[in-house]
Recover the amino acids of this structure.
């Protein structure tokens, strides 16, 4: 896809502080009572890592839902992304090495 | 600079090298689809946008003689200064041609006045949005529609001018649905609602003339309104009976028992206006007949009657109140030649506490 | 990274975890995607670790994960 340069429609000028990258979403204050999805990318050892993360987050009051994508070599299938988006308040994906 | 015309839109592109843009350049990633990238950055109203490259924005700016860095308005809700260039960026995204830009600039100015109260129009839970009505010679020069399907789809100027105002409020003012825009239901016209009056086919003076502008002036009138609703009367052959029909329909604006609460636009179509033309009725006569048929019985003054305290309202015994305040019913002539229908567009809280219709002349054409 | 970029688009705040070797690739990819998906780096290598070693790596990552996933 061709790189394209466009002018900022929000009126921010060239010398303003704002970067041109899309910004991450606002974060919840804490994970207590939130549903956190743990997405395993299916690389060896990632499951052990996520088990430990799951225990830690549960200790902090989070509800955990585990997901596994079929292969680490490709983005997760759309159905899986939709499932995560409709059931989780936050998501952690691991573990790329 | 020669004003651009519909026939030779590219003439002005070569007149002078464009000044470098003031707005920051945003460079999309190599793997980003520019069209997706614009959605991702939150600039879109839900429909695709034209990427506002520096070249397209420079071309858009050729549609006006105003300086790119001139401040057009301070845009609600975040009260951000908006330059001609920033309006042009949004006009490119909305799909405008350069010759539409003077209309867009005037619409942005009119929307950002205290009288119109764009902040309130945006923030209300009611369904209203800004509606733009264009009068005067510019309608023809930029190819606006005032005829068949006038309130519908299909005409680039009508649709993209209205959309640009909406994008300016979104992107510059920061007014987005679910945030400051708290509308319960919204209406499809909040995407874009802009049309031209059929002055040539009208038996009456135009909306702009009625509001004090000469026939040769091109103007924008902005009104806070919701979606149009058709009023059917295929039987009345006398103007009195047709006026009564229209009044009955208009009475339901907001609620049939509410008086003095909302302004409205009455769009009279050619076949309906012919009844009044044949009888020699002026616009004023029609207004009077409508008013006569739109008196509402009330036990006491409702809270909606502005400027009256609760104590006063309880002490005043009122038998009847008019549906609309003086000047609160705007009559516009538009529509296709066939069809015995007119249209009602209900407004929002009227008067100084809500929104008032604003008409500005389009200058620097 | 593509997954977090897409999940954030769908309204879910996200973080991904990668080993330190992934850092440069992540930066290049962020620039290409126009979105700097938040990430936490852990020691490299991963594949030959024992379960106990993996648990220690995870324990060390928790604080930063919370920092990048919450605003509190």
């Amino acid at each position: 896809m061709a790189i394209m340069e466009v002018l900022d429609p929000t009126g921010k000028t060239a010398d303003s502080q704002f970067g041109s990258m899309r910004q991450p979403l606002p974060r919840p204050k804490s994970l207590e009572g939130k549903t956190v999805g743990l997405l395993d990318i299916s690389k060896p050892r990632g499951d052990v890592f996520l088990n430990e993360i799951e225990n830690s987050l549960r200790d902090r009051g989070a509800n955990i839902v585990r997901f596994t994508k079929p292969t680490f070599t490709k983005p997760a299938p759309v159905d899986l992304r939709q499932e995560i988006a409709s059931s989780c308040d936050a998501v952690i994906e691991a573990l790329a090495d | 600079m020669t004003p651009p015309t519909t026939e030779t839109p590219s003439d002005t592109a070569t007149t002078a090298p464009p000044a470098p843009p003031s707005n920051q350049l945003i460079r999309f990633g190599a793997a980003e689809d520019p069209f997706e990238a614009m959605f991702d950055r939150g600039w879109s109203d839900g429909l695709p946008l034209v990427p506002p490259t520096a070249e397209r924005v420079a071309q858009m700016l050729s549609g006006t003689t105003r300086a790119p860095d001139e401040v057009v308005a301070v845009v609600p809700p975040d009260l951000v200064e908006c330059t001609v260039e920033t309006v042009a960026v949004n006009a490119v995204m909305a799909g405008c041609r350069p010759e539409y830009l003077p209309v867009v600039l005037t619409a942005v100015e009119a929307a950002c006045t205290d009288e119109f109260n764009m902040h309130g129009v945006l923030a209300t839970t009611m369904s209203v949005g800004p509606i733009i009505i264009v009068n005067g010679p510019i309608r023809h020069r930029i190819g606006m529609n005032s005829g068949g399907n006038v309130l519908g789809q299909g005409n680039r100027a009508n649709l993209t001018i209205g959309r640009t105002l909406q994008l300016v409020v979104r992107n510059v003012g920061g007014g987005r649905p679910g945030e400051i825009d708290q509308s319960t239901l919204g209406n499809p016209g909040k995407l874009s609602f802009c049309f031209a009056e059929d002055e040539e086919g009208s038996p009456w003076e135009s909306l702009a003339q009625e509001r004090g502008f000469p026939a040769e002036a091109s103007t924008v009138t902005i009104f806070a309104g919701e979606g149009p609703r058709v009023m059917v009367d295929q039987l009345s052959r006398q103007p009195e009976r047709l006026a009564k029909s229209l009044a009955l329909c208009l009475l339901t604006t907001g609620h049939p028992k509410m008086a003095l609460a909302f302004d409205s636009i009455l769009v009279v179509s050619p076949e309906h206006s012919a009844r009044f033309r044949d009888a020699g009725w002026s616009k004023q006569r029609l207004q009077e007949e409508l008013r006569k048929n739109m008196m509402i019985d009330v036990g006491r003054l409702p809270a909606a009657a502005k400027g009256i305290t609760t104590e006063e309202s309880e002490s005043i015994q009122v038998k009847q109140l008019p549906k609309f305040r003086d000047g609160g019913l705007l009559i516009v002539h538009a529509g296709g030649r066939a069809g015995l229908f007119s249209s009602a567009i209900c407004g929002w809280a009227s008067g100084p506490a809500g929104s008032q219709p604003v008409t500005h002349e389009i200058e620097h054409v | 990274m593509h997954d977090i970029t897409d999940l954030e688009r769908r309204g879910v705040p996200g973080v991904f975890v990668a080993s330190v070797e992934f850092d440069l690739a992540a930066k290049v990819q962020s620039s290409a995607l126009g979105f700097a998906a938040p990430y936490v780096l852990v020691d490299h290598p991963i594949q030959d670790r024992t379960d106990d070693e993996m648990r220690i790596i995870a324990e060390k990552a928790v604080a930063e994960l919370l920092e990048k996933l919450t605003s509190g």
